[in-house]
Specification:
Layout (H helix, E strand, L loop, with lengths): L2 H8 L19 H4 L6 E5 L4 H12 L3 E6 L12 H10 L3 E6 L5 H15 L4 E4 L5
Parallel strand pairs: 1-2, 1-4, 2-3
Helix pairs in contact: 3-4
């Protein structure tokens, strides 16, 4: 393991930060994954930018996309909301579930995951793209 990642992981204990750290990061390889049709993918920060681009790539295969992001109203300087992203995802061939979710709030994340499972019958892939600011 890269020593910089080891140092980052050593800064967090399970008592202070009970979540996955860089030690558990597994890069996703679209080529090896094959077709994502029917897979349910939960993507944080998917209302714009890289998160939306990932969602659109998955949608082209016919994936179910849970868009977990904070933005529900248009921002004057940043394009995209969970609703505009959902329209783009559905136009690309996927099914979309727009979810207002703040990844800094455990209750918000649990509710978003629960709604995803209720809507699509499960969860296959998590892509944590959101920045928590």
């Amino acid at each position: 393991m890269n020593h910089r990642l080891e140092n980052v992981n050593n800064q967090f204990s399970s008592k202070r930060m009970p979540m996955f750290t860089l030690k558990t990061f597994v890069p996703f390889d679209f080529e090896k994954a094959g077709n994502l049709k029917g897979k349910t993918i939960f993507i944080t920060g998917a209302s714009r930018g890289i998160g939306l681009d990932i969602a659109l790539r998955c949608a082209r295969d016919g994936a179910n996309i849970a868009i977990a992001a904070k933005t529900v109203e248009a921002h004057p300087k940043l394009p995209g909301t969970i609703y505009t992203a959902a329209k783009e995802i559905e136009a690309a061939g996927g099914k979309a579930l727009p979810l207002q979710c703040d990844i800094r709030d455990e209750t918000s994340v649990k509710a978003a995951i629960q709604k995803t499972v209720e809507t699509f019958g499960g969860l296959d892939i998590l892509i944590n793209n959101a920045s928590a600011i």
